[in-house]
Specification:
TIM Barrel, 8-stranded parallel β-barrel, binds erythose-4-phosphate
């Protein structure tokens, strides 16, 4: 399973990269706004830091505008994956990007039928927003499971990128289902390391080590 960090914060990307388990980064307009910095500056720093796929989102809502942004973003580096919302114009733009060899991450997916559209357009990744589905009482992992089953039925190569993950149980379930990628905030990655028995066991080992004669 690939791990992407869901952030536009450079310090967080540096910290997670240091662990040696980070495969890529996903951003969105809200995450960029949270940094309080210009998009161009944030984008340049992320691309200088990350070798793996970096999802950068278009903000136009019409096909022509999306394509202008997608083509410009794709010029920025080989790691760029253009993030495109799941609307009719977005699916049209995704299909054109596929023809032009531009990698895409179709975002704001809330149903398996939407994911089917993204696969038909040749999207590189589909991002079902698990946490936001849970928020409205629609179990997000059921949708991830349906998408994986449908993609498997037809051999679609679009990778399922479980997004909007809020806690370690989401990561566990996405991995059990076989989602290709999990994108998560740094807090969730930090939680994955944690187990009280690990802390207790280490404390005991270190205490016992003090008793070993020199
Ligand atoms: C996905 O790529 C999105 O950036 C993200 O996972 C959305 O998460 P949220 O619902 O916690 O904002």
């Amino acid at each position: 399973m690939k791990f992407f960090l869901d952030t536009a914060d450079i310090d967080e990307i540096r910290a997670a990269s240091a662990w040696g388990i980070l495969d890529g980064v996903t951003t969105n307009p809200s995450l960029v706004a949270k940094t309080g910095r210009r998009f161009d500056d944030v984008k340049a720093e992320i691309l200088a830091l990350v070798d793996g796929p970096v999802s950068l989102e278009v903000t136009a809502t019409d096909y022509e505008g999306m394509m202008r942004e997608a083509r410009a973003l794709a010029q920025e580096g080989p790691q760029v994956v253009v993030k495109i919302p799941l609307t009719p114009a977005g699916i049209q733009a995704t299909a054109t990007c596929t023809k032009e060899g531009i990698r895409t991450n179709v975002t704001l997916c809330f149903s398996a039928n939407q994911a089917l559209l993204a696969a038909k357009a040749g999207a590189t990744y589909i991002s079902p927003f698990v946490g936001r589905m849970d928020d409205i009482g629609n179990p997000g992992m059921d949708v991830v499971s349906d998408i994986l089953e449908i993609y498997n039925n037809y051999g679609y190569e679009t990778q399922v990128l479980a997004a909007s993950l809020r806690h370690p149980a989401h990561v566990l379930e996405a991995a059990r289902l076989g989602a290709h990628v999990a994108t998560m905030p740094i807090k969730v990655i930090e939680q994955l390391f944690k187990h009280p028995m690990t802390d207790l066991g280490l404390a005991r080992f270190l205490a016992d080590w003090q008793k070993v004669p020199e």
